[in-house]
Amino acid sequence: MFLVGLTGGIATGKSAVAGVFREHGIPVIDADAIARKVVEPGKPAWYKIKMEFGSDILLSTKQLDRAKLGDIIFNDVEKRKKLNAITHPDIYREIYWQTFKYFIQGYPFIVLELPLLFESGHMLNYLHKIIVVTCEEDLQLQRLMERTGFTESKAKLRIEAQMSLEKKADMANFVIENSGTERDTREQTIKVINVLKCSKYHWKLRFIVGFCCTVLLAGAYWLRNRSFKSLSATA
């Protein structure tokens, strides 16, 4: 099984592209969904965030006040780094676990939806291919403002906190341009899916894993027989 990274800018349409992959039976691991899960009340990361940022960033339900926390970290790079240092270990641990489960199920490849793939750099060495979803800058700003209710200045601050779409596109294997219609985006995504489905790379990886497992089992069998013979000789 090989891994495909799906990334892009905020409000460029990553989730729409991920939805097309799911419709075609391809598993998608959503890092944002995992990030929300690991900071639920009572989770270790929740306690650490509370200690670092204070109880003021909690709602009456004990859930994180994401708007307030967002205002803090997007105006202070160091605090954003502290938040990432708290949450990222738990997020990536869950990503690894879900990836392992899909590997056991025999999928040829899966998609990791990672909004901050290039910014964090954490998963780059594990990915066989990278897909970047882009759109026109004005459209990105408009979508973000409509989706969140942010003012223009606040929306620009969120966009500027990430690497530019141009730089991300330069490092991608596939670029899906999402400024047009839903049909256009869907057709681009299906073309990428067809290319990935034709790849034989997963067989190479499975051969390597299978070979390593065979060597380990053979070694364990040899040690077992050797121990048995030693015990028989001393009996």
From TrEMBL:
Pfam families: CoaE. One of its GO terms (molecular function) is ATP binding. It comes from the Eukaryota. GO terms for biological process: coenzyme A biosynthetic process. Keywords: ATP-binding, Membrane, Nucleotide-binding, Transmembrane, Transmembrane helix. The keyword Transmembrane applies. The chain crosses the membrane at residues 203-223. CDD domains: DPCK. InterPro entries: Depp_CoAkinase, P-loop_NTPase. GO terms for cellular component: cytoplasm. Belongs to the CoaE family. This is Dephospho-CoA kinase domain-containing protein. It comes from Vespula germanica.
